[in-house]
Amino acid sequence: MASYHVARDGQEIGIFEQDVLSSKVADGTVRVTDLCWTAGMDKWVGVGQVLSTVGGATPLGGGPAAQDPVWSAPTGGDARGQMPPNHLVWSILTTLLCCLPFGIVAIVYSSKVEPRFLGGDIAGAQQASAKAKLWCWISFGSVLIPVAIFFAIGLLGAGAEAVDF
Amino acid sequence: MSRAHLQWGLVGLLGLVGLFLVYSINPTESQRFPKCPFYRFTDLHCPGCGTTRATHQFLHGNVLRGLAYNPILSIAVPLLGLLCWEQLGRARGWHVWPVARWISSWIVWAIVIYWVARNVPFMPFTLLAPH
């Protein structure tokens, strides 16, 4: 059973199973004008559009959402419908372990991935994801390279005390 | 073996080597670990200052001495654990609490405030600086 992310005004308001979506509309939690998305869809569509396709309260008999024509869903290797990775773990790690301000830049971009994606800005989310990754590497590299040199000198015993990094 | 497995294997291996070095060499007694470049150039502590020394103490079981070097780790380590749990859960299709979204909403401010606070030269802020 597919679970739908439902968003209004760029903010996600909840995640609902396909079979409860129509009852959520009935009780006013979700509006037909809200946007929704589930894994396999390449863009957000109106809740009303989804409900009219799946036939209101009648749950689909376990059919995969991706086969529904309305969504013109990508199949196979197309990952446009997936939220891009936010790289938040690496951003925080490189900030703590590499201590140059580059890690902060990575965190700023990481933080933008999910809000953009949930707001329907998939290209923007992918951009933020790519930039977060780039800045993680810059942060990591900015320390890894000096560390590697430092250790090489230290382990060679060539006067580690003389090296004043 | 897939490319992802290979990448994670390599990351894990490097991590273990790093932990072993930090375990076996005490950063306060050795010149082999590089000093924080930010501290070196500005004489100010960055949010990560003390992490190597703290990790050394953690690996030797001295949690409180470790936290004295960088108290933010008491928050950062559990958060990183939660984030990993969220990623694992999402990959397996569980319904997980949106940790990343929650963290994203405040983390940049938290780090900037911590960065400033640990450089304020009087109590209680000095407790945040490595000591």
Please explain how this structure is put together:
The complex is a heterodimer of chains A (165) and B (131). In chain A, a hairpin with a 7-residue loop joins strand 3 (35-37) and strand 4. A four-stranded antiparallel sheet of chain A has the order 2-1-3-4. Chain A has helices at residues 18-26, 47-54, 88-98, 102-118, 122-156, and strands at residues 3-8, 11-17, 35-37, 45-46. Chain A is built from five helices and four strands. The longest helix of chain A is centred in the last third of the chain and has 35 residues, at 122-156. Chain A is rod-shaped, with a radius of gyration of 23 Å. With 165 residues, chain A is an alpha+beta fold. With 131 residues, chain B is mainly α. In chain B, helix 1 crosses helix 3 and helix 3 (51-59) runs antiparallel to helix 4. Chain B starts with a helix and ends in a 14-residue tail after the last helix. Chains A and B meet through helix 3, helix 4 and helix 5 of A and helix 2, helix 5, helix 6 and helix 7 of B.
What is the ordering of alpha helices and beta strands of chain B? HHHHHHH
Overall mean confidence score, pLDDT of chain B = 86
Alpha carbon gap, first and last residue of chain A: 57 Å
Query: What does the overall shape of chain B look like?
Result: globular
What Rg of chain A is obtained from the alpha carbons, in whole angstroms? Answer: 23 Å
Unreliable runs of chain B, pLDDT <50, ≥5 residues?
none
User: How many DSSP E strands of chain B?
Assistant: 0
Mean pLDDT rating of chain A: 73
Largest protein interface, residues of each chain? A-B, 36 and 36 residues
The total beta strand count of chain A reads 4
The low-pLDDT segments of chain A are 56-80, 159-165
